[in-house]
Write a structure and sequence with these properties.
This protein is an alpha/beta fold. It is 40% helix and 16% strand. The longest helix has 15 residues. It is globular.
Length: 316
Amino acid sequence: MNHFEFNFFPHKLNGIRILIGIMIELGYDYPLYRPPSEANSVIFQITFGCSFNKCSFCNMYRTKEYSERPWAEIKSEIDIVSKSYPQTEKVFLADGDALNLSTEKLIQVLDYVKEKFPNLKRISCYAMPKNLLQKRSDELTLLNEMGLNMLYVGIETGQDILLKKITKGATSNGIIDACNRAKKSGFIISCMIILGIGGKKYSIEHIKETAKVVSEVSPNFLATLTLILEDGVYDEFMQKFGEPFEFLDDSLILNELEILVGSITPSSSIVFRANHASNLYSIGGNLPEDRDKMIQLIRSLKEHPELLKPRVLRRF
């Protein structure tokens, strides 16, 4: 999958020799993913893979078995990178399940990262709803106070039937509770949803229920992706879906996007982006402030499909 782009480590280092040398010395376990907004972040793999790894649409960590890295390895890698890149301002903790670590171990990592990178402005990681629900509120608050600033949470859909069909391992109420607990603990939240994940049959239910969940959560950032099933999960997705699945064509994807933008009623402003590689066209703005402008653009794209990104350039 998917949610996010492949990442070579580290970024902004001057000289290909430094880049290659550090990559070899650290011995990263690929594939390695990060959110698009972490393109300029230093990445430390403190876990490998995903402890859940059952989402039928996601192929990110199917080649890996979940494991937690020993502190000695993590510490050594932080030491190596801090010597070559001491001015680091952003750090992303990989793989897909860093928040699954015990609070004590996470604090150990956060403390050392802050010690070795004095100019640090942000530490972030992916977070599944179950990660957030398994931590006590005081633990989440402590992690935020210790420097973990931003969490990326995949909502995918707010429709409970679909959440079961895609084996997300969460309910709409659970997603709302998890995100709101994180926000209350001080985290910046960036959420993702997937256009087209309900197919033609569930399209309207999917997008309307998703808009409700997003409105309840009112994340700081919201991004849309468009469903593209890779070979590694195509058969699994179809099997788990449990009934015939019809993909949406471009016009129906734009319909979902228009309904989504028009239906979200957040309690605070959301930075909205539909600029992932899987999307038909790069669209962005703030909700609700730029709602009308974005809807106008979406309607214009429906009338001029020649402006859409060629299919060959789209990827999940």
